[in-house]
Task: structure prediction
Amino acid sequence: MNTPSMSLRLLVLPLALALVFLLLLAQNVEAGNSPIPTETHRVSSGDTLWDLASERTATGEDVRATVALIQRINHLEGGLIVPGQVLDLPAV
Result:
């Protein structure tokens, strides 16, 4: 006997599996399968992550996205950078 709830269960499982697959695929694409050209920068006194990101953000684009990118590239958990630290920054 095929009830509506059983049909729904048979539909939900493949959809859930497809969603998980798509999320894993998207994560692999975001994780750096297409390398970002970078250049190194030695942090000087007075440098901030925001200032460094602003210099590398196109007009009209969101600086916060560049800050997040720099944090991801350099495995930074926050916004603290210190003089002498060497960072990989998106190439200008």
